[in-house]
Amino acid sequence: MMTLDSQILTPYDIAGCSLKNRLAVAPMTRVSATETGHVIQEMARYYERFAKGGFGLVITEGIYTDQKHSQGYPFQPGITDAQQAQAWRAVTDSIHAHQGSVFAQIMHAGALSQGNRFVDVPAAPSALRPKGEQMKFYYGEGRYPVPRAMTEEDIADAIEGFAQAATLAIEFANFDGIEIHGANGYLLDQFLTDYTNQRNDRWGGSVQARISLTLEVVKAVRKAVGMVPLGVRISQSKVNDYEHKWAEGEHAAEVIFGSLNDAGLGFIHVTEFEAWKPAFPAGRNSLVALARHYAPQVALIANGGLHTPEHASSVMKDGADIIAIGKAALANPDLPQRLASKEMLDEFDPSILGPIANIKSSELTLA
């Protein structure tokens, strides 16, 4: 039986968006759109289950932002034009029908692109082959290709892509807010990370320079959409490098979270493999605690193994305002209702995400 601090089930206002509780569905790539990146009806049904099951907030899977280098996977949804954006209305309308809120997570894959219908060669901060191999459950095979280093024009295009995608998400798709994907090894994280960013121009070098592209994207998106809820997802680990830690340790946390705090964000979404653990080997504070310390003015969403009461309570004590749930939400789309009634939770079945991580018909009957 699950019990949790009752605070998690209380309403919360995140940057002007009123949530019925502090439980969110974490973004999870499901590669279930059409080949041209359009949302299908099964995706609307998939997302609706979480709102029907009581989650106050749903954060979408990463949505690619332009018709150039941003797409990461085959069958990934996009929001690059009005037609793609309008297809998302089926999702947002289904969530709103159950008094839920939904944020669009917009992303650029950079060097980790393993399926782009617009270009053959990925673009990244530097022409370095990413670590590891492509992810089979997202249709990948073999090593990542070597990307080409982005020019100033490429960087400007990427920034404009984020801003345009955010505009389409708010004006055409009726999303309640925007999450900029700056985590998990994708483009903005590639600029932030010391070993993937070998540039010697204004975008590389110190951690302050390496976070500058994320800050420019925030500025462009804020200008485009005004005062809607806007946040950034941040992590140390990557889909191709789970063990990575910021080279500058807590100094990096101070610069990154302090800069995001000063950028006027509504929230920061901190994700770690095990979010309640110390962020660095020599320290005691979790990344959530460091984010709260250096970004006192923004709401914090925490994600990473937080489906147990003790771990969720731990990061809330560290300063998290909202808990984002991933695999446990897939197993329990009605998780908030189960917590409220102190019911047992179902265990996550890995077959949901294999052999391909697309939406299975069995999932659509769970709620």
Q: What this model shows, in words?
A:
The two termini are 20 Å apart. The protein is globular, with a radius of gyration of 19 Å. 30% of the residues lie in helices and 14% in strands. The mean pLDDT is 96. It has a single domain (6-365), classed as TIM Barrel (Alpha-Beta Barrel), CATH 3.20.20. The protein has an eight-stranded parallel beta barrel with strand order 3-4-5-8-9-10-11-12, surrounded by six helices. It is built from twelve helices and twelve strands. It is α/β, with parallel strands linked by helices and 367 residues long.
Number of domains: 1
According to CATH, the homologous superfamily is Aldolase class I
Rough outline:
globular
pLDDT averaged over residues: 96
Amino- and carboxy-terminal Cα gap = 20 Å
Spans of at least 5 consecutive residues with low confidence = none
CATH architecture title? Alpha-Beta Barrel
Mind telling me the CATH class? Alpha Beta
Radius of gyration: 19 Å
Please give the count of helices: 12
Write a compact overview of the structure shown.
This protein is 30% helix and 14% strand. It is built from 12 helices and 12 strands.
Provide tags for this entry.
14% strand; TIM Barrel; eight-stranded parallel barrel; two-stranded antiparallel ribbon; 12 helices; alpha/beta; single chain; 30% helix; 367 residues
